[in-house]
Amino acid sequence: AETEAAYVVSAELPGVKKEDIQVAIDGAQVTLSAEVKREQEAAEGNRLIHVERSYGKASRSFTLPQELDEAK
Q1: Does the pLDDT value for residue 21 go beyond 70?
Q2: How much is the average pLDDT of 11-39?
Q3: Spatial distance between the Cα atoms of 23 and 43, rounded to a whole number of angstroms
Q4: What CA–CA distances, in Å, run from 26 to 18, 47, 49, 68, 69?
Q5: 26 confidence band (pLDDT: 50, 70, 90)
Q6: What is the pLDDT of residue 22?
Q7: Cα–Cα distance, 2 to 5 (Å, whole number)
Q8: What is the mean pLDDT of the chain?
Q9: Residue 21 in contact with residue 12, Cβ under 8 Å?
Q10: Contact 14, 20 (CB under 8 A)
């Protein structure tokens, strides 16, 4: 979204903590990236029959109409 004073970026990355998301700015290009880790464990006292883990990286880049001032 664009306001008079800034661009506002909202991203939904289920299972990723806010502090684990990296934002890189190169002129007018913005890149959001994160490492996604999902693990499922059984409750205490249960015998595991099947366990799933998924890992990967998510990254999206987009270009804004003008270059950005990273300090702002």
Answers
A1: yes
A2: 88
A3: 36
A4: 21, 50, 47, 8, 10
A5: very high
A6: 94
A7: 8
A8: 84
A9: no
A10: no
Specify the 3-state DSSP secondary structure of 19. Answer: helix
Q: Give me the amino acid identity at 49.
A: I
Alpha helices in the chain (DSSP H): none
How many angstroms from the chain centroid is the CA of residue 10? 10
Whether 19 contacts 34, CB under 8 Å: no
* Amino acid letter for position 69: D
Within the chain, what is the greatest distance between any pair of CA atoms?
A: 57
| Residue 20 CA, distance from chain mean position | 7
